[in-house]
Every structure is written in C-alpha cells, then in structure tokens.
Amino acid sequence: MSGDVNACGCAGTAATPAKQAGPGFWASGGWLLAALPAWIALYLVLKPLADGLAFHLLGLRPGSRLGEAVAFFAYDGPKVLLLLGLVVLGVSFVQTFISPERTRDLLAKRTGVWGNLLASLLGIATPFCSCSAVPLFIGFVRVGVPLGATFSFLISAPMVNEVALFLLLGLFGWRIALLYTITGVTIAFLSGWVIGKLRMERHLEAWVMEIPFEASVDAGGALGFSARLNQALQATRDIVGKVWLYVLAGIAVGAFLHGYVPAELLARFMGKSSWWSVPLAVLIGVPLYASAAGIIPIVQVLLAKGAALGTALAFMMAVAGLSLPETIILRKVLRPTLIATFLGVVTLGIVLVGYLFNILM
Amino acid sequence: MKIEVLGTGCAKCKLLAERAEEAARGLGVDFTLVKVTDYPAIVARGVMSTPGLVVDGVVKSQGHVPTTAAIQEWLR
C-alpha cells in the first residue's frame, strides 16, 4: 500500500517559519499580558458590532431571514475563531508537557479495567494526530499496552478532543461540555473493554508484532517556559491556519439554518419523537470527516432549532470519532475482522448514547 | 551527516523536511536528507508520532515541527 495517505486532521499548512524568541521580556511571554485584555475586549464588543453591521451598516431588518443569518454569521464567526485561538494556545501549551510516549509508558503498567479507563482519560489530553495512528498503535502494542486499552485510547483521542471540549464549554456551557466528555470517555472505555474481551490479538496484521522495534523515549522533557510557549504558538498558528476555513464554512451552514430553516422542520427530523433520527444521524456522521471545531457551530444551530440533544451529540461524536480516512490508515495494522469490530462497537456505542440522552433529557 | 525526516507525507512532514534542509544549508554542513515514509521503517526507529527528525541515527524530535534554529542546534 502506498504510504502517502494524507488524512490527518491535524495541522500542517503553516508556511511561515516560527520567529525566534530572544531572551527579552516580550518574547518570553510578556506579550500575553497585553494580548489577553485585548482578546477579552474584542470578545465583549462582538455582539453589538455584529448587530450594527447587519442591521445598521447593511440596513437589514431585525427578524428578517437574511438579517438574522448575517447577524448570526458576523457574531459567531469571529467569536468561534477567537475562542478557538485561545483554546488551542492553552491546550497546545499544556500538551508540551504530555507526550504519547509518556502516556504509553503509563498504560504499559496497567492491565484490566483500569487500563481501559486510564487510556480513555489520557486520550482527552494526549496530543494525537490520525496520521500518526499507525506508529502510535504499534508503539503501544509492542511495549505491552493491552489491545483493549490501545483501542480505548484510539477512540477517545479524536472523539473527546480537548479543543472540541473547550469550544463546547464556550458555546454551550459546562453542562453539555461535561456531558460530552463523560459520554465520550464511557464509549471509549466500553468499546475498548469489549474489544479486549474478544481477544482479537490474532487479527492484527502479522508485521505489527514481527518488525524490529525500539521504544523511543520522551524527547521533550526539559523545555523552558518560553520554548514551550513558542511551540504552543506555532501549533496554534498551524491548527488555526488549517481549520479556520472549515470553521467559517460550518458557521455559514449554521447561519443559513438559523435564518432560513424553520424550527418545526428540524424538530420533525431530529427531534425526540422520531426513533430513527439517532441511527440516521450516526450513519451520516461516521463516513464524514470534519474536525470537531468545524462541526460544533452546526450542532449549535441544530440544537437551537429543536433537534434532540442525544441526536445532536451522537452526530457530533460520529463525525469527530470515526472517519473513513482513519479507518483506511488503520487497515494497515488491523485485519478486516478487527476493523469491522472496531467500527461496529463504536457505532453501536454512539447510537446507544444518543438514545439514552433522548430518553433522559 | 545523515538527516532523516520520518512521516507519511502529511503537510507537517514536508514542512519539517524544508526546515531541516534550510537549517543544514545555513550551517554549511555536509549532509544527506532522507525522507522515510513507510510505516515499518518509521516504527523501527521507535517514533510514535510523526513527523520525526533523526540525525545520525538519533531521534531528535517527534510529533511537532521544530524551528530552524532548534534544528541547527542538533546539527552542530
């Protein structure tokens, strides 16, 4: 198989070389003191600015379809991008302390249920990119992380994405963010546990266990504050540079739905009363590949328009957690039976969670 | 000096290869740059997150793209 599958959702388009930080106050993080208040001020004036643009500058009528759609886009677009920038910066900084190697070594010592639970939790914070899925998978399995725990990690890492988490927190509040986290971790935990119990080690491709392998050690141990901050800044530039267009596209779709689609229509298709809405949302979401950041604005509008919470969450998890490109990449290490089991178990888990929330809420 | 860039061809890997070459040229050292793109070879070097940078057989960085200046430190 060719090795040029370029399917990672992670950053990469940055062409600007990172600036070199001198030892000065500003370069070593002092600029944050100025940037943060500016960020907050901008965030606070967004709403009046957006309304002013839509209803005064463009002369659109409040309450009209176009007016509401434009005002929504003008407010949500910059808002989500501002949130995204701050969130990615913070998360990238924290992640300079957490490496896949450290996670792997923590997991190698645990067996049984605790391994699955720990793997699901570490999946939230450990930096992960689906284009590294294969080397990461092999690295885990070869140092003795149980197959089930490895899957718990692989499911949790993209689905309970830390960026998605903070965006949910910023846009929906802590209840939904917490709900999403707990649910995602639970699905990752249970799916990994089931796969572990099925003892599917023999469904790995043979080369996974046969090739010569040497466990690497954590390379980024002793970095200073400004080096970490620079690394985080660069990651922020990379990630935001890569996803901003998708985020805006997501918000544009959201704005259209917001202005033009009547609430009753969505409520009929995605509301509680239609039992088939959850599996349908998941089936549509699984092959789709979008970063969680791009899908959240759409979910926001779906919810506002009367979609049931469980259905909306299930859709988001299916889009963020499973994807066709990642499945193709994993096929290099997993035989078809194991791939099918992985997809089946996770899909089933997401559907069940969707129903659960629709019943509870 | 042998510089290896490990990665399956994602944008970050290309960026790393560019920076590594820039760094080596800037120092004027004698070097060969090899892009390692197949999984078994990447795994054999113990790298779990791409892109990875290996200088004379030693893994210098993985999972992110270091700055040109940082790469030059490793090439000296």
How is this structure best summarized?
The complex is a heterodimer of chains A (361) and B (76). Mean pLDDT of chain A is 80; it is low at 1-9 and 11-22.
Notes on the protein architecture:
The complex is a heterodimer of chains A (361) and B (76). Chain A is mainly α and 361 residues long. Chain A has 16 helices and no strands. Chain A has helices at residues 26-57, 65-95, 100-108, 112-125, 133-142, 147-159, 162-172, 174-197, 206-210, 225-260, 263-270, 277-285, 292-304, 309-321, 324-330, 336-360. Chain A starts with 25 loop residues before the first helix and ends with a helix. In chain A, 46% of the residues are buried. Chain B is of the alpha+beta class. Chain B has one domain (2-75): Glutaredoxin (3-Layer(aba) Sandwich), CATH 3.40.30.10. Helix content of chain B is 41%, strand content 25%. Chain B has three helices and four strands. Chain B has helices at 11-27, 39-44, 68-75, and strands spanning 2-6, 32-36, 52-55, 58-62. Chain B has a four-stranded mixed sheet with strand order 2-1-3-4. In chain B, helix 1 crosses helix 3 (68-75). Chain B is globular and about 30 Å long. The mean pLDDT of chain B is 87. Classes of the chains: A mainly alpha (361), B alpha+beta (76). Chains A and B meet through helix 3, helix 5 and helix 10 of A and helix 1, helix 2 and strand 4 of B.
Specify Rg of chain A, calculated over alpha carbons: 22 Å
Q: From the structure provided, what is the oligomeric state, counting identical versus distinct chains?
A: heterodimer
- Structural class label of chain A: mainly alpha
Name the poorly predicted regions of chain B. Answer: none
The average pLDDT of chain B is 87
Q: Domains counted in the coordinates of chain B: how many?
A: 1
Compute the number of strand runs of chain A. Answer: 0
Structural class of chain B, by secondary structure, is: alpha+beta
Name the beta content range of chain B: 25-35%
Portion in helices of chain B: 40-55%
So how many helices of chain B? 3
Number of continuous helical runs of chain A: 16
Note poorly predicted spans of chain A: 1-9, 11-22
Largest sheet of chain B: 4 strands, mixed
Q: State the total count of DSSP E strands of chain B.
A: 4
Radius of gyration of chain B: 11 Å
Instruction: Please name the two chains that share the biggest interface, counting residues whose Cβ lies under 8 Å from a Cβ on the partner chain.
Output: A-B, 44 and 33 residues
